[in-house]
Design a protein that fits this description.
There is one protein chain. This protein is mainly α and about 130 residues long. Helix content is about 45%, strand content about 0%. It is built from 7 helices and no strands. α1 packs antiparallel against α2. The longest helix is centred in the N-terminal third of the chain and has 10 residues. It is elongated and about 40 Å long. The chain starts with 6 loop residues before the first helix and ends in a 26-residue tail after the last helix.
Length: about 130
């Protein structure tokens, strides 16, 4: 049986997920259970990488099994995933996480009529409410 995860270890991974890929890789190699945990301030590693537009870390975390949510999909330029999220749950057009305004979404995603309005709220305890898949 593995030791319980410490909040300090979780917070360290989430902080590193903003900017430090080598540290993210090291921490996850040592503690793979940290992948989808929330920092004390309610942010997961994938959300941390996405909200600072760190594509390299975000893609690495997705490869490791982090859930893709609509805001991360938008930040990564995955138009088909954004469309699929909205088709599955039109209410996700109100999602908040990483995109700063409706106009920035419209410029990035012409042709998608409903978009996440802001994508700037703190992550919920469960990323499922952001429409994550996995």
């Amino acid at each position: 049986m593995s030791a319980p995860l410490s909040q300090g270890a979780i917070d360290e991974l989430v902080v590193a997920s903003h900017f430090d890929l080598p540290k993210v890789k090291t921490l996850l190699a040592e503690h793979p259970d940290l992948l989808n945990e929330n920092a004390e301030w309610i942010e997961t590693p994938i959300q941390a990488a996405a909200h600072v537009n760190n594509r390299e870390i975000a893609e690495y975390l997705l490869e490791q099994g982090a859930p893709l949510d609509i805001c991360t999909a938008a930040v990564l330029g995955r138009a088909e995933d954004v469309r699929a999220f909205l088709a599955e749950d039109p209410g996700l057009s109100e999602a908040r996480g990483h995109i700063t305004s409706e106009s920035s979404f419209s410029r990035r995603w012409p042709g998608i009529s409903k978009s996440p309005r802001s994508c700037t709220r703190p992550a919920p305890r469960s990323t499922r409410s952001w429409g994550s898949r996995r």
